[in-house]
Amino acid sequence: MSSATPVTASVPAPPRGGPALELLVHGVGGATPQDMLDDPRTVRITGDATAAVYRRPEDTDAEAHPERYVSEPIPEAYCWSNLTSGNGARALWLLLLPFMVVNLAHWTRPTSKGPARAVRFYGMLVRLVALSLTALLTAAACEVALDLTAWQCAGSATCSADSSWLGFLSPANGGWWAQPGRRLALAALVPTGLVGLLWYLSNRTWSAYESQRPPGTATADDAAGPAGTDSPADIRPALGRPGFWYGRRLVARLRAAHTSAGFLIIAAAVTGAAARHDRGAGVQALDVAGRALESVLAVTGLFVVAVVFRRGRSEKVIDNRIDHAVARWLPAVSFVQLALAMVYASWSRPGWVSHDTLPGDVAFRVIALAQGALVVALAVTAHLLHRRARHPRTAMRGLAGPAVALLACALGGVMTGGVAQQVADWLDGSGTPGVGEGPIAGPPVLLSWQASAIPVLLFLLLVPLAVLGARTWRTGRALTGPVEADYPGERPDDVRTRRIAGTRARAELTDAAPALIGILCTATLLLGAGAVAGAWVSGEVPAEAFNRAHPAVEAAAEVAQTLGSWLIGFGFLLFVTWGRRAYRDAAARRTIGILWDVGTFWPRAAHPFAPPCYAERAVPDLTWRMASWTANTGGRLVISGHSQGSVLAAAAVWQLAPATRRRVALLTYGSPLERLYGRWFPAYLGPGPLSALHRELDCWRNLWRHTDPIGGPVRIPAEEGKPEVDRDALKDPVVYGRTDTHPLPEPILGHSDYQADPAFAEERQGLLDRLSPGLPHQRAEGPVSPDSEEAQGLPDPKSL
Q: Could you tell me the maximum CA-CA distance found in the chain, to the nearest angstrom?
């Protein structure tokens, strides 16, 4: 049973030393407070339905009775799962997957030592890649609504007759909407609504999730130095800077720029079609109006690019300002230009007939070339940054950022191409999507070439996957000896040993991900370049381009095109189906929530339409709770984080003031801090930042297992006066065979149930013993704010 309202206990002055508190933070996939506290009855202490802190009913007044908690700390659970997998509507975030992935590219940059210009240039390139994804999405929406539907199908008597809902647009009916310009203006409402929806979701999710101000426990002096750099001027690591978890100004600017870009692309599609007709129609007034409108759209587009180009994140201070001239007026001006474009296109043009296709193929080629050039430039920049600060554990030798950006572009291509292919197949009634055998010409040729590359890419991936499978099998065979050595004195059991060794070998597959992604990205870049070149040179779909080649080549091209078209359409339908299932099924929603747990930890620094960053709510929650509890009680606190919860815990500890941090210990288990985050995000959680956290934090201990596919050691060596962070790997299973105390076989736990191991309680108690007891504070009635001098460890003015 969970209480509906928070419970606030009346806390008297604590005894010398104060009580001890264990703040539990769960990992990916979510957990209930009942499971975390091992009690079916829980009470919400503070928070809301989205994220809250819970206790057992008998612990609500624990601070008033510290004598009850001499042998163990007060248990308290922070549940944040509803931030990523709450109501069914959040399943639709799956359609924003490319935006989420490109946002990760900003954070995967390598560590750098030297001038900050290269770091700023890297961030600028990522923001431009993100802008190209918005352009790709808008261009796809225009392709479906304007080209395929309003221009091709509605302009064809056969297609419009087959689609009765398009009858009022058909020229055969001679209605007001029969003119191509008016059909385009009406169809432009579809992509306009899509861009408006993205703007609304970005604005709404910012207010609901990310607008939580962090406590003022760090000063601007602590975070001096250029934003996002690793220069000596940066006294604190990036995650410890005051403005790291609050990027309101940047998100507002990017939201305005991307919204404006979407409106301008729609306006350009509508204006361009009408302006091309007017140049040969002999109506000078319309010709001049079209050229003027195209010029204004081009100038505004350059200004949008300049807005994205100019400014990145500011982390030295809480960036609470808003550039109203950009955030408010830029989308409004672009929307007005879109409205003018729709009025211009709707002007009467008797005799104008739509034929062939709109020049969407050129637009898709330009976007693909721009994305390829940006990814290559990003790779060169990342290599130069990594060369100045090499580390052998960095994923893909510093090229993780460009690889992630390329994957985002590939995902965007699959999703947008899938929409166009399926709509074209639906409208023309052809058995092969995109071939254009029906009454309409179909989608752009480039989409057919890109679809043809997908089967080739999947075939190429079979080789490294087969090699990886064989290596895993050999590793499992080689680990049988070490497994038996971990359980001396036990009677060997071949089946049991092979099962444990196989689990360890499969857990090591996580470390092979960089190599596999590197192969995937290289093949994707080469095949994508080949698709653009083939579409540009031939101007025909692959099956037609190779119809004069050897019959075997022609047959292979036709099979690749057909299979790829179905695969790209199936991929999009899979996204939609998975989203609909998650909307209705809580279990599927939790599965998608795991994806967001990993992908939306980082703030929106590149793409404003990405799903919201839950850490901008969770990290301030944890920081406020730790700072206020220690200030009010003067007690000791151990924050205990599992899996993704360990990353949140470490980020929250970084935000604490030094005086508060001295009364806080960090216990991580199943933690991806170094194994995943340290390798893929080295500038923020690499060896340097983690070592800095170890120096700033008096007490930190990490538990891990060889069978865990996610967690691992943090690899921080012991320093003078401080023990090593990592404990030796825990045995999994705890007991090899049957014993008097374990008469039934113990399971292989892998990534779960670390608290069931006796080492957990031992390490937790060791951390509390190492924390120096604090003295009670003389304070006025009521709780202490984390922004107060007392919470920041400053002396009380009354005592001076």
A: 98
Q: Specify the higher pLDDT residue, 644 or 229.
A: 644
Residue 669's H or E segment, with its range, is strand 664-669
Residue 214, pLDDT score: 66
Nearest one of 162, 136, 166 to 151, comparing CA atoms: 166
Q: What is the spatial order of strands in the sheet that 699-703 belongs to? A: 43-47, 52-55, 74-79, 20-25, 636-642, 664-669, 699-703
- Distances in whole angstroms, Cα of residue 422 to Cα of each of 416, 430, 433, 572: 10, 10, 7, 9
Which residue segments constitute the domains of the chain, with CATH numbers given? 20-79+627-794 (3.40.50), 103-179+355-567 (no CATH), 180-351 (no CATH)
Nearest to 244 by CA among 207, 203, 215, 202: 215
Written as one letter, the residue type at 346 is: S
Q: What is the pLDDT of residues 272-302, one digit of tens each?
A: 999 998 888 778 889 899 999 999 999 999 9
> Which residues, in sequence order, are CB contacts of 350 under 8 Å at separation 6+?
179
Give the Cα separation of 36 and 77 in Å (integer): 6
Element (H, E) at 214: none
**Structure token pair of residue 629:** 């509890």
Extract the tokens encoding 395. 């994923």
DSSP 144-200: IIIIIIIIIITT-HHHHHH-GGGGGG-GGGT-GGGSHHHHHHHHTHHHHHHHHHHHH
Q: Work out the average pLDDT over 533-556.
A: 76
The rounded Cα 442 to chain-centroid distance in angstroms is 33
- The whole-chain average pLDDT of the chain stands at 83
- Put residue 696 in one of left, alpha, beta given phi > 0 → left and psi -120 to 50 → alpha: alpha
| Number of alpha carbons in the 13 Å side-chain half-sphere of residue 159 | 26
